[in-house]
Amino acid sequence: MKPTLLVLAAGMGSRYGGLKQMDGLGPSGETIIDYSIYDAVEAGFGKVVYIVREYFLEQFKETVKSKYSGILCPDGTPLEFDFVVQELDKIPSRFTLNPERQKPWGTAHAVLMAKDVIHEPFAVINGDDYYGKESFKIIAEWLKAHQGSEGVCAIVGFELDNTLSEFGKVSRGICHYDEKKNLTSVVEFVNVGAEEDGKVYGDNTVTGETHVEVDAKALCSMNMWGFTPDYFDLSEAVFEKFLEVNLMELKKEYYIPYAVDYIMKDNGYKCEVLSTPAHWFGVTYKEDRPGVVAKFQELADKGFYPTPLWKK
C-alpha cells in the first residue's frame, strides 16, 4: 500500500497577506503545493488529502481537478485525491464551542479531520513550505518500512540555517533527541535569525531566555511528520483532554508537537528523528516571494523540474 500525503492548506498566512497556497511561484505558475505533490509522487506516494476551510473548498477542488486530473504514479496507477474540512465546530460532541472563538484549533486538530479518509501510513506537510526532493524520499522510505507498525512516528528535521528567512525573524521548533535519535522534546524558539556576526540567535519560549545563540546545525521541525493510522485514536484522546482544560480559551491551539509529546510521555510512543540535507524555503513574508520565484526558476533551468510540471 502506498503512503498518503496530508497537506495542511487551511491557513490564510496572515504575515504573507493572502491565500498563498494558491499563489503561482513557478515558471509556469506552479504553486509550492504543486512541487510538493510532484516530489511526493516521485517518492512513491499514491494519494493526496487536503485539509482546507469550507469557504474555499469548492475553489480548491476545481483547481486540483484542472491541474492534476489524469496524473499517473510511476507504476501507472492514477494519483488519488481527497478533501477534508477543518472548522471550529468540529470537536467531540460532549463539548460546546465557545461562540467567541474565532482562531482555528491548530495543526494537530487539522490532522484529526482526516481520520475517516486515511487508513495507511501518511506524511503531514504544510501547504506553503518547499521541503525538497530528498525530504520526500526520506519520509516515504520510513512510511513504507512501517506498514502495519504502531506506537511510532517520525519527524523530518532540517538544519536550522537551511530554514531561515532573509526578510525577518522566524519561529522554529528545535528537536532534542537521545543517542538512538528518538525525539525527547521540541523546544520552540521565536525571533530566530542570523545576525551580523554570522551566528543564529532566538528567544527560548520554554526557559524565557532571550537572544540566545542557537546551533545553526541543530535539527528543527518544519512540520514534516510521518504517522501510522493508530496516531488518530491516540491524538483524539489527547485532544479531548486538551479541550477539558482549554475549551473556553480563545487562542490556545492543539499543535502536532504538543500531541506527540503528550503521547510519548503517557503511552510510550516513540518519534524517530530523520535528518534531511535539503534547503527549506517558503513565503513567510511578502518580501520572500521574489526569491522563491527565482529559486524555482533556477531549479527548472538546472533540470530538477520540468516546466510545466505536468504535460497534459
Descriptive notes:
The chain is an alpha/beta fold. It has one domain (4-301): Alpha-Beta Complex (Spore Coat Polysaccharide Biosynthesis Protein SpsA, Chain A), CATH 3.90.550.10. The protein contains 7 helices and 13 strands. The chain has helices at residues 32-43, 57-68, 107-112, 133-145, 230-246, 256-267, 289-301, and strands at 4-8, 47-52, 80-85, 122-126, 129-130, 152-159, 170-177, 183-194, 200-204, 212-214, 219-227, 270-276, 281-282. The strands form 2 sheets. Strands 1, 2, 3, 4, 6, 7, 8, 9, 10, 11 and 12 form an 11-stranded mixed β-sheet that branches. Helix 5 packs across helix 6 (256-267).
Which short descriptors sum up this protein?
312 residues; alpha/beta; Spore Coat Polysaccharide Biosynthesis Protein SpsA, Chain A; two-stranded antiparallel sheet; 7 helices; 13 strands; 27% helix
